[in-house]
Amino acid sequence: MTTPGRLRSGRLFPAPSANPSNSSQQNLPKYRKEMTDREIVQLWMDSAAPATFRVKRLFADAEVKLTNRGSIADEASAIQLVTERTKIPIPEILRTVEDRGDGYIIMDYKGPRLSDVWGSLTKEQRTSIVLILRGYIDQLRAIEPQDFPGPGPVPRLRLLKEFFNEMEHIRCAEDVEETKLKRFDDSSQFALTHNNIGMHNIIVGKDNIYLSNWEDAGFYPQWFDMVAMKRIAKEVKAPISWVRNIPTMVGHFRGKEEYLERMGCQLMCYSNTKTEAKYRPRTK
């Protein structure tokens, strides 16, 4: 049996010379714990390195992710839970920095992103990665659902269905017949979902596949990961050879993409809902 996160044999990705981005990274300094917060922030601002989904490789042995200040705690909570309950490899967080409303997460550099090497992989290597990721999803779904202090409108599971149904009422306005409202489908088991699994958040190490960027993780119906993966793949125009494997990794749930798309901007305005107020009472 293949160890979770590991290939059956051989190197997982092409030799470094096959990765064109390596030449520009050879002269990077090593991360030093003695660096001040201000030095790290300034290094991010001054660096001409490309920011791949808000992540820059500023050091030979570390990357820096730019996020908002409040998301640091969300990511830390998710990583702690995943580390305690699964064997999913995650890049180690070396340090966090807060600067005004921004947050910076310094992570151990493990290797290139899947999006950078997918085209160089053999069919067997791609299949191995897909099956490894399927194993990660299975591990996440094995965690018992619980109220979770992550992002989203209502971290309490019992209120989530009520919240989405309230959003549907807002979207359709009061003159729509009750029978025509699209009810939230909670028939799928609730599970810890990553909600941001794209090729850019999958790190290809020498003998491990790492899953990064956990700030959007939370307990939702299993189909949330499928919708997120398809949405991200569409946004970045991911290779069709990747898109075709999404059902293998997370399953297929008919009609769910259309449902969340219908909700649209209402999900951006959840702070004004009655359901959300039950979780976070208003302060005068």
UniProtKB/TrEMBL annotation:
Residues 1-32 are annotated as: Disordered. It comes from the Eukaryota. InterPro entries: AGP_Transferase, Kinase-like_dom_sf. Transmembrane segments: none annotated. Residues 14-27 have a biased composition (Low complexity). This is Aminoglycoside phosphotransferase domain-containing protein. Coiled coil: none annotated.
